[in-house]
Structure formats: structure tokens, C-alpha cells
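Final report, section 2: Outcomes. Of the targets proposed, TetR/AcrR family transcriptional regulator is the one most frequently requested by collaborating groups, and we therefore present its record in full.
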Amino acid sequence: MARQRAFDRDAALDSALRAFWRHGYEATSVAELTQVMGIRPPSLYAAFGDKRRLFEEVVRRFRDVYGAFTARALTEEPTGRQAMERVLRETAVAYTDPAHPPGCLIITAATNCGPESAEVEELLRGFRTAAKAAFEARIRDDVSAGLLPADTDTAALAAFYAAVIQGMSTQSRDGASREHLVKVAELAMTAWPAHEVTTVR
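The predicted structure is given below as C-alpha cells.
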């Protein structure tokens, strides 16, 4: 008797990720998930628990594989301005990559969820809030270094760039090109506050 092919958990998880990314949490049914993952419902429940817990694992994989460029930019660049500019430029590239669905799963996967999916909405909101806090931390670094005015509203500036990125995700899903989003990124950086250094004579 032929042996059953081993279950490739990572491949199944990536297939689920793309389904959730393309259609969102609520619109992606268990039937569709099992179809794209190439497994039966009992195998899904045995390997991942249920749809919500599968989604939580998908989000972690998305963050670590497809969204890691943000954390790298924020960590590696010497100034907050350079970090934010890199995040925006790499966002334009990532959100329009034809190798996967457009936009950002963390931004779009729970935009039209009902009350029964409140935990999913809260999960994604938590990731977005953490990203905004990371933006603000790098902006504060520039204030501390004297690269931004001392009275800079760091929270508002971080919220502005978070809003730009969320808008870029939506526009990419509407078909915006990489070139278009790069222009959006460039324009957004013109909102970065200028800091005039006064010299004492």
C-alpha cells in the first residue's frame, strides 16, 4: 500500500497566509483554507487548532517574513528621518511585489469584521499600534539629537506616517504602481519638520 505523503506544515501555512492576505479574515472560509492548503478539515484543526489560531500564526509569519523590512529599517538607519524614508520607500516596493498579494495583511485583513471577530481586530490593531510606537521612538531620537525642533509633536508625526503607510496599502490593492507609491513616499517626506540651526556670533 502506498504511503501517504507527509504533511508540509510550512507550505500549508504559507498557502493560508496568501488566502487571508487576498480576501481578509472573515471572507476566507475554512473550506477555502483546506482547499488551498491541500488538507482536510481534521488536519487543519489538528495542526493549527481552529481558524482564528491559524490566523494568529499566519500574522506572525507575515510579520517575520514579509514585514521584517520595517523593523530592519528602523534599527539600521542612523537617524529617524533616514529610517522613516527607508520604511516608506521599501513599503512602496513590498506592497506592489507581484510575487504575492498587494498591500499589507496586517492593515487590511480585518477591515470589515463583525463582533464575533473582535479578537482578530484587536490582534491586528495591536501590531499597528506597536509599529506606530516604533516610528515615534525613532522620531524622538531625532529630537534628542537636536535634528528636530524640541517642540515636535512626535505622536502626531508618527501617526501621520502610519496613516500614509495604511493609505499606500489601500492604493496598492486598488492597482497603484510601484512608481506611484514611491512618489507618495517622496511627497510624505516633505512633511518632515525642518530644523533651523541658529549660530551664536
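Residues 118-144 form the longest helix (27 residues).
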